[in-house]
Design goal:
7 strands, 210 residues, alpha/beta, 7-stranded mixed β-sheet
C-alpha cells in the first residue's frame, strides 16, 4: 500500500513539474514593456472556442443557463482586475488600466482563442496534479499605439491555473498563471538583451585594441 501511495505521489509531482506555460514573441519588440507609460487593457473572448469541442465559448456559456452566465461575468471581472493589479505591482514602467484616459499611450488586447473551462470534480481527486481541473487558455497578447499600429504580439499556450471547485476561483488562478508566465518571459528577454549588449561591448573593445 505504501509503495502504491509513493508511486501516485511521484507521478503527481512529475505531471505538475512537466506542465509548462509558454509565451513566445511573434512580432515586434518586447522593449515596449520597459516604457514609462499607461496602457488600457482589453480582454477579448469574442472568437474563443471551447477546446476539443466544436462550439464557441459564447454558445457554451449560453447553453449552461442564466446562472452560469452570471457566474462567468463575475469570474471575468475578478480575474481581470486581479491580473491588472498584479502586473502593476511588479512593473516599474508600463502600467495597465481597465479604462482609457488622456494619458493612455497604448492598448493591450489579451485575446483568448481557445479555452478549457476545467472541471470542479477533477480538482477534488486525491493525489492528482494541483492543476487538475484548472482552466487552460491559449491566445495572443497584442500591443498597439493610439493610432492602431501593432508594436508587439505575444503568443501564449497552455496557460493553466490551479484546480479549484468554483469557476470564479479557477479563472482567477489561470490569470495569475498568465501573469507569472508573462513576468518570467519579460525577465528572460531582459536578461538576454543585457547579455547581447555586453557581448557587443566586448567585441567593440576587442576591435579598438586591434
Amino acid at each position: 500500500m505504501k509503495k502504491v501511495l509513493c508511486l501516485l505521489i511521484s507521478v503527481s509531482f512529475t505531471i505538475l513539474l512537466s506542465a509548462k506555460s509558454i509565451i513566445t514573441l511573434k512580432t515586434g519588440d518586447v522593449s515596449i514593456f520597459s516604457k514609462s507609460a499607461k496602457a488600457v487593457v482589453e480582454f477579448d473572448y469574442d472568437s474563443a472556442e471551447i477546446e476539443d469541442k466544436d462550439m464557441s465559448l459564447e454558445d457554451f456559456v449560453e447553453q449552461k443557463g442564466s446562472k452560469y452566465e452570471a457566474r462567468w461575468e463575475v469570474a471575468q471581472n475578478m480575474a481581470h482586475k486581479d491580473f491588472i493589479k498584479r502586473f502593476n505591482k511588479k512593473s516599474t514602467n508600463l502600467k495597465f488600466s481597465a479604462d482609457s484616459t488622456s494619458e493612455t499611450k497604448y492598448k493591450v488586447t489579451i485575446k483568448v482563442k481557445t479555452i478549457n473551462l476545467g472541471n470542479s470534480l477533477k480538482s477534488l481527486v486525491p493525489f492528482g496534479s494541483q492543476k487538475d481541473g484548472g482552466i487552460t487558455i491559449f491566445g495572443r497578447i497584442y500591443i498597439k499605439d493610439t493610432t492602431g499600429n501593432e508594436l508587439c504580439q505575444l503568443r501564449f499556450t497552455g496557460i493553466q491555473g490551479l484546480g479549484a471547485a468554483g469557476l470564479e476561483a479557477r479563472l482567477l488562478l489561470t490569470y495569475q498563471e498568465l501573469h507569472s508566465a508573462l513576468r518570467k518571459f519579460l525577465n528572460k528577454s531582459k536578461n538576454s538583451s543585457k547579455e547581447e549588449e555586453e557581448e557587443e561591448e566586448e567585441e567593440e573593445e576587442e576591435e579598438e585594441e586591434d
